Amino acid sequence: MRRLIDLLSPLCRFRPARNHARGSSQPATARIRSRSSALALALAYAAVPAPTTAAVTADQSAASIIMYHRFGEGDYPSTNVRIEQFEAHIAELASGRYNVLPLEQIIDAFRSGRTLPKQTVAITIDDAYQSIYTVALPRLRKAGLPFTVFVATDPVDAKFANFLSWDQIREIRDGGGTIGHHTASHLHMADASTERILAEIKKANERYEAELGEIPRIFAYPYGEASLAVRSLIIEAGFVAALGQHSGVAHAEADQFYLPRFPFNENFGSINRLKLVASALPLPVSDITPLDYVLDENPPHFGFSVSPEIPSLDRLSCFASTGSGGPAALTRLGERRIEIRTSQAFPAGRARFNCTLPTREGLWRWFGMQFYVPRNRAE
Fold this sequence. Notes:
The protein is of the alpha/beta class.
């Protein structure tokens, strides 16, 4: 248990630095985060499509989606992995113990209700930094590992020195990589107006179409920040899935428009952590509260119901990104309902919960959630 706490606690505390140059704050009256009643939220949530079209259990169709940003860029340790770390990851993932598949293939399996091999993994990279081309691409290509790059188009169009060019992005795509949607400016979407979000998606779509001849089908929320209203806009825009930055195993029963990913950086990029998450199993849950990802109450009354297919919950542990990041107070109601309370409010920005359950086989089931705390509701 101590080892798992050591691996989990950093995930709860990890918050990449906010880059104010990439987006602008919106007046409170213009923000799309929910101000309505719980009934309105429930109606909004019920109006969106179901996550899958066929019945498979979580264990039958699951994948650990791992996330990188930079490679060998030591000036940015919170979003960077060292080259030797990345090479160790590649060696492990190419060892034959895992099934590393293209992200689109995994999403299509979720949507159609098809099964996936055990220990399926997807590799994703956010933000289109230059080190993807100089460091990651040749190593991934040599190992034959598929991957997806989520590209924010404005920095590429601005020809910033530390970002990819469109020629390099085309080379990545033509070499077997997949390009994903990441807005135009790398927007803080939970704080943005509906008009701003729609304009960002439209602008990025036009640039993808012009440079790549197609618009990506899969979206990744910048910073992992979203809300129920943002989620609805992403669905209405025609995407088939959307990814956050909260840890957990993605699966066919999960919300396909807020799928989890395991982030890696210098401090939390050990080979032991990679082995842990790449072998993890889903912890399928339902009836998550609060319903919206933007918190109206801080600290929140966080709760969920664990799927009946999961055996004994006696060893379930949950961790919050407040205080030390250690185990949070957990209350079990009946056989399946879990309620988690923290005495300390979250600071403004991103707030995470991670819940894990050991199995008899020595693996870990994993479920996580990320919420967003507006500044007027921070500690």
